[in-house]
Amino acid sequence: MLIFFIGTCLGSFLCVVAQRVPQKKSFMLSRSQCDHCQQVLRSWELIPLLSAVLLRFRCQRCKVRFSSISWWAELIYGGLLLFIWQQPTLSAKLITGVWLTTAFLLTLTDLFYWLVEPRLLYPLHGLLWWIMFYQNQEFHWETLAIVGVLASSLSLFYQHAIGLGDLILLLLWSPWLTLNQFALLVLVASASAIVIFCGYAILRITQIRLPFVPFLSFGLFVAYFLL
Questions:
Q1: Whether pTM exceeds 0.70
Q2: Which of 167, 179, 186, 213 can pair with 110 through a Cys bridge, CB separation 3.0 to 4.6 Å?
Q3: Which residue, 98, 83, 171, 177, is CA-closest to 131?
Q4: For residue 41, how many C-alpha atoms fall within 13 Å in the half-sphere facing its CB?
Q5: pLDDT tens digits, the chain, 227 residues: what are they?
Q6: Using a CB cutoff of 8 Å and minimum separation of 24, what contacts does 84-90 make?
Q7: CB-based contacts of 169: which residues, under 8 Å, 6+ apart?
């Protein structure tokens, strides 16, 4: 239970990082505040999961409803930290923690801004690649080559099919995945996106636009970490 609570606190912090880094704001020094009225939040309003429920997802001062993304981020990262903690070796914990945290952060920036934030994308993947090489993880040249050709083709001939940031993300992941794992990742990501799209259509939600990094991250979790 303690690990889960620590994970919810980290999830709240990562949500702040994802919100502020694209805006070039400090995520270490300035205190959290309401996005609408800019009032600084008090300590009891920052308790993961509990505060938002007690406040009914509304700012106590201006009464404007705030996004539930941070609440879900706390809940999901709490579960992810439990999953990371249960890995059998320190090496597995390190790889799982860095990779899933990177995917989680980029998922949040895509949800907030429709953006694969470069200031998070490249440094975090530089760290991931260093760890993978240091731990002697197998480098799959064939996956990188095939994904590189596909990414180049999509960027040249189907520019609106998938965003450039999504393609770069897949390229950075591809050397550490077998072809079967990569195919499963794309299948799970695409299928889950279609399910959500159909759900929106059934609910008659118009102007549907889905960020794709959350689905890619879910596909990664299933293809690499679960199976």
A1: yes
A2: 213
A3: 98
A4: 19
A5: 899 999 999 999 999 999 999 998 887 767 777 667 777 777 777 788 888 888 777 877 777 787 889 999 999 999 999 999 999 999 999 999 999 999 999 999 999 999 999 999 999 999 999 999 999 999 999 999 999 998 888 776 665 657 788 999 999 999 999 999 999 999 999 999 999 988 887 877 766 678 999 999 999 999 999 88
A6: 85/3
A7: 106, 116, 121, 213, 216
Instruction: Return the structure tokens found at 134.
Output: 């240091």
Q: Which amino acid is at 102?
A: T
